[in-house]
Known about the structure:
Blueprint: H1 2-9, H2 15-28, H3 31-58, H4 61-89, H5 99-110, H6 116-128, H7 132-159
Helix pairs in contact: 1-2, 5-6, 5-7
Amino acid sequence: EQLPIFKAKHPDAKLSDLVRKIAAAWRELPEEEKKVYEADFRADWKAYKEALSKFKDQLTPAQLVSFEKEVRQKRLKKKASVKKRELMLLGKPKRPRSAYNIYVPESFQETKDGSAPGRLKTINEAWKSLSSDERQAYIQLAKDDRIRYDNEMKSWEEQM
Length: 160
């Protein structure tokens, strides 16, 4: 209900800022008004659970297994994302880059092909055709980055 109202008040604000403002307004809302929304939520949740139950009843056993596997994978992906964000907030060092990952950004600026996928395809072909001497420079940079990562990880782990 509140999103269109807040969008009208703050047309240039990002969605995340709008959500923060709506959350602050929610915290300021009296308990009696909150109960109305909570009752609506419970009714919607009950309807959702019934619809989900009907949906699952219509599935074959193989489809049900596939559906549950998909739900499990989404849940695990979300948990991994949350964990990664938490580690980032704790200052965990970024993983070391591979030789190829060092080569791509350097070459991306030089490649003139219009679209990003086209540029990446050109870069990939160029990487495959690099001589071993040319590749060795990037391999050495990757080794140096690995050493940096190992040192930062030791320091970070001691700090934690």
